[in-house]
């Protein structure tokens, strides 16, 4: 059996990422044999380049590939760094929320359309808080190294739901 559409695939992997050619690869996450990454191949929702690199592989096959920023989480966009007036972070008593708004912290925010965003606090001044709303991995080249652990046919339920049930997947 090979990895193709409508198969449920388990892999282990180590993901590292780097911001430019000269910087070191930083560890992002690991999915090990006891907590593998389990997904329904071809169902969408994963990076296209990630699936493209795994398609056709068999159980026991290893992989080691890079995905450049444009095909991963996008390029870092200066327009996604914005200054927000400090009073947006005042509580009802007019006190600045210094507990959550700290340099280097990631703060859940909502835009004018009600979309949830994660903002990284870059700068705090008397007038404004500068936040970076780029994905934390924007501008990073990703490096995946791992092994295919299991491949099975998806059940009709999994196919109609578009996701994996059972271990590593949804329980409902
Ligand atoms: Zn389901």
Q: What fraction of residues sit in β-strands?
A: 35-45%
Taking Cα atoms only, what radius of gyration do you get, to the nearest Å? Answer: 20 Å
Class of secondary structure makeup: mainly beta
Could you report the average pLDDT, rounded to the nearest whole number? Answer: 94
Helix content: under 10%
Query: Hetero groups bound?
Result: zinc ion
Give the low-pLDDT segments: none
Total domain count: 2
Describe the structure.
8% of the residues lie in helices and 38% in strands. It has 172 residues and is mainly β. The protein folds into two domains: 92 residues, Chitinase A, domain 3; 55 residues, Thrombin, subunit H (Beta Barrel), CATH 2.40.10. Strands 1, 2, 3, 4 and 9 form a five-stranded antiparallel β-sheet that branches. A four-stranded antiparallel β-sheet has the order 5-8-7-6, with no helix packed on it. The protein is elongated. The site of zinc ion has 5 residues, from loops.
Key features?
172 residues; mainly beta; Thrombin, subunit H; 2 domains; 8% helix; binds zinc ion
Provide the fold topology.
Layout: E1 7-18, E2 26-31, E3 37-40, H1 48-54, E4 62-67, E5 81-85, E6 106-110, E7 116-124, E8 128-132, E9 141-153, H2 156-161
Antiparallel strand pairs: 1-2, 1-3, 1-9, 4-9, 5-8, 6-7, 7-8
How would you briefly describe this protein structure?
This protein has helices spanning 48-54, 156-161, and strands at 7-18, 26-31, 37-40, 62-67, 81-85, 106-110, 116-124, 128-132, 141-153.
